[in-house]
Amino acid sequence: MSPAHFQQQLFAWFDLHGRRDLPWQQDINPYRVWVSEIMLQQTQVASVIGYFQRFMDRFPTIRHLADAELDDVLQHWAGLGYYARARNLHKTARLVAANGGEFPQTVEALSALPGIGRSTAGAILSIAGGQSQPILDGNVKRVLTRFHAIHGWPGETRVAAQLWQLAETYTPKHRTGDYTQAMMDLGATLCTRAKPLCEICPVQAGCEAKHRGLVRQLPAAKPRKALPVKQCYMLLLTARDGAILLEKRPPTGIWGGLWSLPEFPDRPSAEIWCRERGYRLAAVATLAQRRHTFSHYHLDYTPLLASLAEVAAIADPATFAWQAPEAWAALGLPTPIKQLLAQMPESDGAVISPGPRLL
């Protein structure tokens, strides 16, 4: 099937069945396309819709985002994961705002901004700018890998280079924004990872994977390796009014810039840390260990529920703060920490938050 025929079949299908009701498809501009593309990285559309709408309500333009504090941005991102995306959004917003508020108009200049790669740059320029620029997100990789029966993991350098060449070949000079959306729709709704609907695919006639019976095998999975396991203890230090001592994480790394719980290698280390800061503990309880899996390791963490015997001042006010239960919802909290706090037991006879009791 020639590129022209591929495009023709794809457009005919998209004109009848393409998605047009997603929130980022309304009032299209580079800012909205950029935010949606970053949110959609490694995240399903269904999960992104609500986040995108709330994000746009709070930061309707790139200048609103640039003027906001990082804490506010992270709070509106909390739960989406991969928090470096939010930090890079904030950095890029400030860079673009400082340069007049207009996004660069070349792939090279866009790709030089924090968190924007070649595919995201292509999506911004094609969807919002009408430029003929290829993209290669996960959906497009899957479509092209199957259509040409390409073996090997798409993340491998050799395979990725081949896929980029194909993406350039198939990208038309006209209706590029529609083509970009059509390819993403095809991968998301028909050429899915599991249970692809080959029988109604508009380009099935030229699909090598279908003809060779390789649809289920392609694309090849990323070579597996055992994830390492890291362990820590997390301190749930409670004041008499139910406030919890929270720590502002460093701006980089896992959960960078978010509020979390102080971490320690073991229980004695946590107790020594409290004594050194003048926190006299009335009680300490070790709770059941939990696991949170990141992309590159498992974190096994054991909560330590401790209560203060008396009121104590913050020893490190630049990094730590007492946060009352009514303030938790407005903080940028990692999902595991948010879930842990939601299950806190009663304090002074009042239920802090519904959920199963920890003790």
Automatic annotation (TrEMBL):
Signal peptide: none
Organism name: Methylomonas koyamae
Catalytic activity: Hydrolyzes free adenine bases from 7,8-dihydro-8-oxoguanine:adenine mismatched double-stranded DNA, leaving an apurinic site
Entry's cofactor comment: Binds 1 [4Fe-4S] cluster.
Biological processes per GO annotation: base-excision repair; mismatch repair
Highest taxon above the source species: Bacteria
The keyword DNA repair belongs to this UniProt entry's keyword annotation: yes
Protein name: Adenine DNA glycosylase
Entry GO MF terms: 4 iron, 4 sulfur cluster binding; 8-oxo-7,8-dihydroguanine DNA N-glycosylase activity; adenine/guanine mispair binding; metal ion binding; oxidized purine DNA binding; purine-specific mismatch base pair DNA N-glycosylase activity
Family under the similarity heading: Belongs to the Nth/MutY family.
Function field: Adenine glycosylase active on G-A mispairs. MutY also corrects error-prone DNA synthesis past GO lesions which are due to the oxidatively damaged form of guanine: 7,8-dihydro-8-oxoguanine (8-oxo-dGTP).
Gene3D superfamilies on file: Helix-hairpin-Helix base-excision DNA repair enzymes (C-terminal), Hypothetical protein, domain 2, Nucleoside Triphosphate Pyrophosphohydrolase
Keywords: 4Fe-4S, DNA damage, DNA repair, Glycosidase, Hydrolase, Iron, Iron-sulfur, Metal-binding
Needed cofactors: [4Fe-4S] cluster
Domain HhH-GPD residue range list: 39-189
SMART domains: ENDO3c
EC numbers, comma separated: 3.2.2.31
